[in-house]
Predict the structure of diguanylate cyclase.
Amino acid sequence: MLDRLWARLFGRRESFDDERVRRAFVDGLTGLPNRHVMGERLREARAAGVTGVAAMIDVDHFKQINDRHGHATGDEVLQAVADRLRAEFGSPAWAARVGGDEFFVLLPGVDMAEARRRIVRCAELLRAPIVCGQHAVENLTMSVGLATFPAPTNDELLKAVDVAMYAAKARGRDGAVVFDDDTRKIVTARRELASIIVELQERNRALRDDARTDALTGLRNRLALDEVLDVVVDGSDPRFAAAAVAFIDIDHFGDYNHLHGDAAGDEALRRVAAAVRGCSRDADLVFRKGGEELVVVLAGAGHEESRVAAERLRACVQALAIDHAGSKTASVMTVTVGVASGGAGGTLRALMIAASDEAMRAKVDHARNRVHAASI
């Protein structure tokens, strides 16, 4: 039966011809038993009454090897590590690849002192240069977690060696740590600290977002607007290879407040802001500049596109049909929109100023509830 499940999961070195079965049992890169086989062999060893020491080995700074030399070199390093583990931990000991740069070793019939000696010897093997094409990786080190075998379950054993391995990393790497209660406390404390740091970072992000959000409308506020105004069109930010800015002013808003009261004015402003945001594209940035003035940065928009977008925003507000008996322009609330587009090298600030000038000029010229465009 499948060569007795490949000689009980690599108990002997016979090969098996069925490549599909081989892939199910063997790590494709290193040729070591994979995680599934590791679990089976641990269960069998525990059932047979085997005692000894288990080790989890992590190659130190492996990501730097990948980043510096490339993944092909990284793969060759892992293959060399696997070969050296085989050389040191031959039968009855055995090694498996857990995943990534982590390896598991079981040393049957040894005590912890002997296990530590063998780990030290293996570490010396690992320091020998590994030649990978034109690269040579030297002085490779490993962090090792050790625990007594057996444990009540595979999961408990793997947690123990994993905790001890991370304790070894916390102590500066290139060493071995035996799992015990002190180790558990150290790693737990570090993980709790890491969790606290993540929580503080999330709170800081939330505070930063709150500081840049207008409390009334939920739009980005003046502080957030100021942070983008110096962006250069077709500069380093790919979002603004082209851009335009729409400046929106609510017509006769002061008269609306006088007639209906500040609470009604706030509600009208919220509705206008929601309409403008809803009629903008996902890529556009919508701000409340202050009072009844809104600004929309139209990412990627050229001159004609910006005119179309500005008209859409104007029409969306008028479609709200908010009664405005105090308006001299229409029976409902309307907006006047100035929009400016420009070529590479100009800033969003320059576009906003040009758009604002267009809107203000329209108010003076009694040309409200329209779009007024400029190109600079």
Summary: The mean pLDDT is 89. The domain at 222-375 is CATH 3.30.70.270 (Alpha-Beta Plaits).
